[in-house]
Write a sequence for this structure.
């Protein structure tokens, strides 16, 4: 990655992180409700019976209500667990399951470890993002876990990134390893961006 691209990504992430920290608690709760509604609609539209998601942090659009609701509906939900080698292990989500602090201070589930290829069986991937642009390029948080996972899958299912409404932007800095997403889910809508993936 060139220094200019790396610097642009760092600056954009810092700005987005700062903006997320100023969101009020009532706005966060409303966003979590909206995310659950939109993700439920996406699952229904795609007919997904097995999916991967992530446990949101306090500054991300909330996914926990959705994960619990998906489990209640009988869906199989895989949650990621970071590894030191840059790959993701997975575990099957349990309703209100226990959590530990992962490698980078992020919440991660406890449970039986399934290897990196476990995600190959899902119908839908729901992943975090800092921002996504209108071509479907995603700006992650800089560790490359999801880009590696998506890039290594033989048959990648539709991948949707969860962001706040104002984080769908005209353009994000991109590098060769960056992977596009099929669309985004915000608290108010689902936007399809990359038709060949959805």
């Amino acid at each position: 990655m060139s220094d200019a691209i790396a610097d642009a990504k760092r600056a954009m992430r810092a700005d987005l992180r700062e903006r997320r920290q100023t969101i009020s608690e009532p706005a966060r709760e409303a966003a979590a409700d909206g995310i659950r509604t939109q993700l439920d609609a996406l699952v229904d539209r795609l007919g997904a019976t097995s999916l991967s998601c992530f446990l949101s942090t306090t500054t991300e659009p909330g996914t926990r209500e959705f994960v619990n609701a998906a489990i209640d509906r009988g869906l199989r939900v895989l949650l990621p667990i970071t590894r030191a080698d840059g790959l993701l292990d997975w575990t099957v989500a349990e309703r209100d399951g226990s959590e530990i602090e992962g490698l980078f201070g992020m919440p991660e589930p406890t449970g039986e470890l399934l290897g990196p290829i476990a995600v190959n069986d899902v119908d839908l991937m729901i992943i975090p993002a800092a921002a996504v642009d209108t071509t479907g390029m995603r700006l992650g948080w800089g560790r490359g876990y999801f880009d590696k996972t998506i890039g290594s899958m033989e048959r990648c299912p539709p991948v949707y990134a969860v962001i706040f409404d104002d984080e769908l932007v005209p353009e994000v800095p991109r590098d060769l390893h960056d992977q596009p997403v099929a669309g985004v889910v915000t608290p108010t809508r689902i936007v399809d961006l990359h038709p060949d993936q959805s």
Q: What stands out?
A: The first helix runs from residue 3 to 21. The chain has one domain: 3-192. The radius of gyration is 16 Å.
